[in-house]
Amino acid sequence: MIKLGIGLLFLAVLSVMTAATVQQGCQDVRRAWTHLDYYPIRDMRHTVVLLPQKGFTRLPDSTSIPVNGREREDVDRDVLAATLVNPTLAADMDSSVARGEIKFQKNCIPCHGKSMDGTGPVAALFMPPPDLLAEATRGRKDGYIYSYIRHGGIVMPSYGPAVTPAEAWDLINYIRHMQRVSPR
Question: Which of 27, 36, 46, 93 gets the highest tally of CB atoms within 10 A of its CB?
Fold first, then answer.
């Protein structure tokens, strides 16, 4: 009885191997049964290769807010204020303001607040930032504000990695637009 059971089991296994071989069009019964031949299936041509030289540096998380503001000694804000000129053309100003508003909502509201008065949720934890619609900020040149965005300052951390130069000019255009629309 045991020999009959073993014989039937062997016959069932053999029929499954044969069916798999015919069904998959495979010529080798052993390969169809095991699928464990490593070399023909997995070689250097078929594996995933991570190329570190083609990798990229990830930007900081969009929800993170840098908190280590410092005054950079290698940045002369007066020189930058005098030399940097807003490159945005008048024809592109409306779209630049719209892009700046989106960027402001993503990066600047935590500190400066929705009304740009320096009462954002993070400002309560640290020294509050200046009011962007006040006379003191309106009197600053675009190059000065650009250097503060890109390089940081005493209160404001550097947003150079998170804000590209074009996005910084968009932010400045949005701030100037809001200063014209609703000054304090």
Answer: 93
Residue 85 C-beta-side C-alpha neighbours within 13 Å:
3
- C-alpha neighbours within 13 Å on the C-beta side of residue 46: 6
- 116 contacts 127 by C-beta, under 8 angstroms: no
Name the nearest CA neighbour of 178 among 85, 87, 108: 108
- Alpha carbon 151 to its chain centroid, in Å, reads 19
Q: Each residue of 40-73: pLDDT tens digit?
A: 555 555 555 555 555 555 555 555 555 554 545 5
Which architecture, in CATH terms, is 77-181?
A: Orthogonal Bundle (1.10)
Radius of gyration, alpha carbons of the chain: 32
99-149 tens-digit pLDDT: 999 999 998 888 888 999 888 888 777 788 888 999 988 888 888 888 888
User: Which percentage of the chain shows pLDDT scores above 70?
Assistant: 67
Better-predicted residue by pLDDT, 16 or 90: 90
Query: Rounded distance, CA 151 to CA 183, Å?
Result: 26
